[in-house]
Amino acid sequence: MLDQLKEGLRLYGLAELLNQYPEICMPLFVAGQDIEANAEFVMSAISPELSEKGTYKYQVEVKLVNFLQDLYEFEENPEHAEDGCPRAVTTSTFLQWLTGQGHVPLLPSEKNDFVVALQFNHDCSAEFGIHSMCYPVVSAFSKTIVLPVKHMTAYDQFRGLLLEAFHLGQEFHKV
C-alpha cells in the first residue's frame, strides 16, 4: 500500500513537491499540528441568538455583535498581559477561553460543526437581584457565551467587562 501511495505521489508530481517544501506540506499529512485561529475564523464560528427583528432587544444585540467584531484588534495588537494578568489576550487565547481550544479544528467535519452560541441576558437583575455588575458567562463545554446586556451598553464597558472576565477566567484555571 505504501508503494502505491508513493507511486501515486510521484505520478502527480507531489513527491518532488514534498521533497522541495516539506514544511509547507507537513500539515497536509501530519495530524495534530495546531492551526492558529484568526479573527475571521472566530467571528465565523460565533452564532448569535438574536431576538425578533425590529425590537429594542434586537437592536441592542446587534450592537453587541458589532462590539464583538471590533475585537479583531486582538489579532493586530494583542492585549498584553498586565501586572496580575496571567497571559495576553490574542485571538487564540480568546478562542480557548470561549471553547476550550485555541486552534482551528483539524478535521473538516469538526471545522464545519464548530459553532459558538452567543446568547444575551437582558435582565440579569431578575436572576441575581440588586447588584452592580454581571460578567459574561462562558461555557466551553457547550461552546456558549452569555453577555449581560445591561452592563455592556457602551463599547468601553463591553471591552472592559470582556477582558476582565477573560483574565478572571485565566486566574481561575491557574489555581
UniProtKB/TrEMBL annotation:
The lineage of its organism: Eukaryota, Metazoa, Chordata, Craniata, Vertebrata. This is HECT domain-containing protein.
